[in-house]
Amino acid sequence: MDRFDRCRLLFGDDFAKIQSANILLLGVGGVGGFCLDALWRTGVKNITIIDFDSFEVTNQNRQIGSENISEIKVDVMTKMYDGIEALHVEVTPDWVDGFDFDRFDLVIDAIDDMSAKVAIAHKCSHKLISSMGGAKKTDPTLIQISSIWKTHGDGLAKKFRYELKKNNFKKDFDVVFSPEQPKCKELGSFVGVTGSFGLALASLAIKKLIPN
What we know:
single chain; alpha/beta; Rossmann fold; 7-stranded mixed β-sheet; globular
């Protein structure tokens, strides 16, 4: 017996595909941290995470590992999740342009910077999963998965669509979003939603790895 016995019961022969997948996760904050946790617990052996931030006290309402105030997020995650690789770099359009995405089977975008999100879509939309806005919301049951072009009611997704069109992007990729109307003006957040965004990203990733 090992820690993946229950996963093998669920996924059967497809579990080998999950274990051999190579996934890049951009951002390990309130959404990305839960995505990482789910992928690691489900047996994905090859996970590379990228983040530039350190933990702050205001992260503690929603982020895994945030009890480690002032520590670099990716350093904390490599201690918590054995076997993952980490890069402590800022994801910018210039960085995206120079980075080699070819070795990854899936790229999961859990960052907030819009210019970087657009650059990532241009670079690897054929294997991209992207998170939209989880802040200001309280109901995880409203979370949906769809094409970026079919999103609705999500402020970040609306801005993303606009920027993609402005940059003449005509391809497609799947996103996790919520049409729930904001409950506040500021960036208030509830782990029940942001964490569920991350879990939905992980679920979508598994579905893409074993589509049949």
